[in-house]
What does this fold into?
Amino acid sequence: MNSAPIGIFDSGIGGLTIAHALKKTLPNENIIYFGDTKHLPYGEKSSKVIQTFCEEITKFLISKECKAIVIACNSASSVGYNTVKKIANKIPVFNAVEPIIENLHNKVNNNTIGVIGTKATIQSKIYKQKITEKCPSAKVCELATPLLAPMIEEGFINEDICQIVIKNYLSNEKLNSIDYLVLACTHYPLIFEEIKNYYNDKNVCIVDSARIIANYIAKELKKRLLLNDQKKAKYYFYVSNYTNSFEKSANFFFREDIKLEEVQLTNL
Ligand code: DGL
It folds into this structure.
């Protein structure tokens, strides 16, 4: 059981930022990654359709005998967590939202917290709801930033256009006077430095989601005595639609060369 893999899924290859952080934090763990490249972007889809995708992917990860399921995608975490939990039954399920809320809970007080993510994530208001529950004195300001994910996927990072798009979004009056900025999307850890540079010496703390999520999962698996003590971890990367360009981006998101394998899920 402890040597069973951790199943991670995302709408595409963005969740590889979380898989990479997890690999660094828990180098002994076997990982099965599934990227639903056939249906991305989830950020533009309705809750209902995202839940259907989550259902099929969870069944796939269960068929691979995963000991835990990680919803790396923020859009899927926001609207599909209960769907995944129901199907996973006793298998622990981790989403991308809870670890951030726990992290903020330990540090915020009367602060203003900005949240950026896809339309699906922001429209779900999940961050506002969860942060307000845990930290009632905090103020939460959310902004959908849908251009960021495709821009990052296309590799426009060290370019002027990246700075222009970041400035355009982050100068929005909704995000005026924030103390924290939550990067509520799989892709955003890759522009952490650019966002930090935008704020420059203003006192805004940028919440580095991938690292926080990986640490949270490590802590929870340890608590449940589910960690793998055998060395030599194996990694499998599946996608619902294979293209060379996805593989190229996957290498960039995972920060090492990986091979993607296409798998067709029955009802997807
Ligand atoms: N993985 C998605 C998320 O974190 C971003 C890409 C998409 O919209 O599918 O919300």
